Each structure stands twice: as C-alpha cells, then as structure tokens.
Amino acid sequence: MLQSCTYNQEEVKTLDRDAYVQILIATADIYCRKRQYEKARDCLIQGIDILSKSQPKQKGKILATVLSKLADCHAHLGYIQLAVGSIRSALQIHPKGQSYYLQLAKLFYKDNQYNKCILICEEHFIHNEENYIHNEETMLLMIDSFMKKSELETALKKCAAAYGKHKNYSRLLCKYIILLQKMGEISQVNKIYDDLETLELEGNVNDGQQMCTGLCRQFLGDTVGALESFNAIRNSEKWSHESLKNMVRIYLRMGDFDYWSSLHKGIHARDVDGTSEAADSLLSILEKTLPEDREVSVFRGYWEMIVLGGSNILDRFNNILRDDENYIPALLALALQGVSTPKIMRNSLKKIAMMPFDISYAIEFEHSYLLLAEDYIERGNFDLANDLAKRCLYYNRSSIKAWEIFGKTTELQNGSCNDVVQSYEKCWSLGNKSSHLSGYRLTALYIKMNKLTEALNTLPRVYSLSPENVSFKSLVSTLALSLRP
User: Fold this and answer.
1) 76, exposed or middle or buried, with CB in 10 Å at 0-12, 13-18, 19+?
2) Which carries the bigger pLDDT value, residue 241 or residue 131?
3) What is the reported pLDDT for 334?
4) What does DSSP assign to residue 4?
5) How far is CA 191 from CA 202, 216, 426, in A?
6) 191-227 burial, b for 16+ CB within 10 Å, e for fewer?
7) Neighbouring C-beta atoms of residue 244, cutoff 10 Å
8) What integer best gives the mean pLDDT of the chain?
C-alpha cells in the first residue's frame, strides 16, 4: 500500500533534498499508473515546493522534470491551461529540452489548438531534424493537426515529403497510405504495395511494414490478404492491439454500408460465412487486454447485432453515451440498431451530421452521412442527400457508395449527364470493375448519351459478372438498336 507523500520537516532534514524529491517523483509515478492523478499532483507540487527553496544551481533539470510530470497530471485531470503553464515553466528552466516542446504541442493538439501545435512542430522539428529524437512522433502530430483542420491535401503533401526522407518510419507510412486512400490516389497505394511486396520477398519486412502491407491489401480489396498480414503481427509488442482491431473491423464489415443496410432489412442471413466466430475470438482477447476501451465495447455491440439480431443491446450503447453523449461510434451503432425504428435512427444520424467532422472517426462519419442520405432519397429530399454525398466525398474520394449516391441524386434532379457519368465511372473503377450494378448503370448511361464505343467496352465485363441477369438482355437489345445505321 502506498504511504502518504506528505513528510514532516524533521524527515526532510534527514534526507538529501534530491533523494527526497526522487522519492516524491517515484510515488507520483505509482499514483499515475493507478490513475490517481490528484494524489500524484500533490506529490509533485510538494517536490516543486522543496526545490524552490534550493539554490538555483541545485534545481537544474530535476525541477523541469517535475514540472513536466505535473503538466501530465493536469492534462489527465482536464486542466489544460494549467498543464500548458507547467510545461512552459519547464522550458524556461531547460529551453533545449526537445521532449518538452513535443509535450507542449500535444497539449495544444488535445485542446484543439491545431495551429499552435503545427507551429511548434515545424519550429522544433524542421530546424532540429538531425538531432531530434522524436522525429516520427512529431511528424505524425503535425500531419494529424492538418487532418483535424480538414486540410487533407496539405496533410498529404506533408506526409509525402516526410515519407520521402524517412521511408523506415512505419507509422508515418501507415498514415500516408490512409491519406492516399482518402484522396482517391489508389494507384499510389498500389505502388507502395509493390515496394512492400518486394521487401517481403527479400525477407526484410518488419512488423510495422507488415501493418502497412495489410492496409494496402485492405484498400485494394484483398481482405483475405489483409487479414493474413494483420494476423502475422497480432502478438507484436507495438502493433498487437492495432492489428487485432483491424481484423475485427474486417470481420464485422464495419464501414460496409451495403452489408449493414441489407442486414437490417433481412435481405441476407446474418452470418453467411461464419466470420462472427472469428470476430468473437479476437474480441475476447481485446476485452481482456483493454477492459476499459470503449471502442472495443462498441465492437462487441456490432457483434451482438449480427449474432443476436440486435435485441436487448441498446443498453450497451446508451451506457457509453452517458459518459460521452457525443461519442460518434456509439451514436452510429445506436442508429444502426434503430433502423427498424426510423425516428431513433434519424435523430442519431442528424446529431452526427451536425457535428464538426473528426478524422479520428472518419469511417463512422462517412457511414452516417450515407445512411442519412439514403433516408433522404427515400423521402424525396434529393438536395439534402446530394449535399451529404458531396460532404462524404470531400473527406473520402474513394467512397464508392458516396459516388453512387451523388450520381443517383444528380440523375434524379435532372442534373448534368457528365456529372452522372463521372460518378458511375468512379464507382466502376474504384470497385475494380467488380460491381455488376455499377457496370450496368454506367453502360446504360453510355448508351443514353450515345457513347457507344464506351458501352461496348464495358458490356463484356458486366455480362461476365452476372450472365443470368434478365436486365442485361434488355441492355444488349438497346445497344444493338443504337448501333443500327
């Protein structure tokens, strides 16, 4: 059991001041590990009080260390301004302490002051690039700040420039791959994947690069390959939790709009390929290692919706929302759970749509926009649906469903045929020309616009995807009539 960190003056006299402060620091560290931040803060404040009575030369870096730890305690307790004040005091004492600049940047990031965060990262990373020991972490913090500001193109440029200099930074490469996918640069993802495959053949792939390979495979439509890559590092010290979560997302088809829509409409069986058992096994591991992780709790809720049909699980999501009423994953899950009750679904989705976009929950925001857009289409509100599709495409140019809804609503509004064609061409190409519906719509539109050469090019592929489809025969007949002299 921990003893109180309060000592009387006689005890202080019998101890060397530095040794005594070290005891206080060690005690504070134990309290922090136990998440008792107020007690940790009290220990550190007492340490500062003792050091303040020492001679200036005796204070040195130890006072800066105590102030840094105090800043962390203030941050955990939600006192960001006090935390900023503490770390600024540490920098006055030790102005060359680069880790303190990084800590200050993180505080600004946590407080949504992204411009200040970027400024610190640029000043104390760019000008100290060779000697700075936190290169990758600083780069990621700066890129995340641009992403939080929804400046995705700037974030991509910064990421590309950093990756060009530091190709051994795996977390940076992961971020780069994600940004490329969001910006619709799938060819670049393919190029990175080829480079990683070459390394794998040479036997030079580390755990971080294995994670990057998995992301590439996932974004290129190879979910089986992605699962193999993530599974290979499930026991990795640095990548275990991330790889397990990625596998769970794939097994639960999170972000797969069509799957969840058809699931709630009863169009297909709930577990046609037995993936719920695999998801359950992985979730059990995560629940043991991350017992208080609310994202894992939401994952379990998705699993219950698939396996149990969503009965009696509203309490799970409502309990999470009691602690944080704006937690996006739980709000979306609540909306999906309430599909059979349109009012519950619509209220949850509207609440999400009114919130500022947060890149940390990009998948959930995009899914919400598209689900609400489909609801608007069913109710004849094509303008609102079109606006939501545009918003989704602003943040993710690789969203097939967003392109589909944009094309559909533009067509229903009698909009530009070129915009409609562009939308269906995007759906067709981003889906690796594997969607019969996208191919059929695109071919029909080519015929309507008298682009017969393009129609002839897509027709064989569309037929190979669904040779028994009755509507295909009608399409062939229409094309044949159009080709007659």
Assistant:
1) middle
2) 241
3) 83
4) P
5) 17, 10, 20
6) ebbeebeeeeeeeebebbbbbbbbbbbbbbebeebbb
7) 23
8) 85
The yes-or-no verdict on residue 337 having pLDDT over 70 is yes
Which pair of structure tokens corresponds to residue 177?
């791959």
Does position 175 have pLDDT exceeding 60, yes or no? yes
Q: Write out pLDDT tens, residues 212-237.
A: 999 999 999 899 999 999 999 999 99
- Helix ranges restricted to H, 149-239: 152-165, 170-182, 186-201, 207-219, 223-232
Give the C-alpha distances (Å, rounded to integers) separating 201 from 125, 195, 204, 224. 35, 10, 8, 19
- Secondary element (H or E) of residue 137: helix 135-148
- pLDDT, tens only, 266-325: 555 455 556 788 999 999 999 999 998 999 999 999 898 888 765 567 788 888 888 888
Cα distance between residue 253 and residue 279, in whole Å = 10
Q: Which of 15, 13, 16, 77 is nearest to 45 (CA)?
A: 77
Residue (of 277, 274, 208) closest to 243 by Cα position: 208
Helix extents (H) in 309-341: 314-323, 328-337
Q: How far apart are CA 330 and CA 256, in angstroms?
A: 16
Specify whether the CB–CB gap between 25 and 65 falls below 8 A. Answer: yes
| Whole-number Å distance between alpha carbons of 460 and 385 | 32
pLDDT for residue 418: 82
Residue 352: partners with Cβ closer than 8 Å, 6 or more residues away: 328, 331, 332, 335, 364, 365, 368
Given a cut of 80, is residue 434 above it in pLDDT? no
CA distance 58 to 80: 29
Q: Minimum mean pLDDT among 35-44, 70-79, 131-140, 282-291: which range?
A: 131-140
Per-residue confidence band for 430, with pLDDT thresholds at 50, 70 and 90: confident
d(CA 70, CA 219): 42
- Token pair recorded at residue 57: 């030369």
Tokens, residue 450: 């008298």
Exposed / middle / buried, residue 120 (Cβ in 10 Å: 0-12, 13-18, 19+): buried
pTM (two decimals): 0.83
Per-residue b or e along 328-349, where b marks 16 or more CB atoms closer than 10 Å to that residue's CB: bbbbbbbbbbbbeeeeebbebb
Q: Strands, E, within 3-44: which ranges?
A: none
Is residue 324 packed enough to be buried (19+ CB in 10 Å), middle (13-18) or exposed (0-12)? exposed
The 3-state DSSP class for residue 150 equals coil
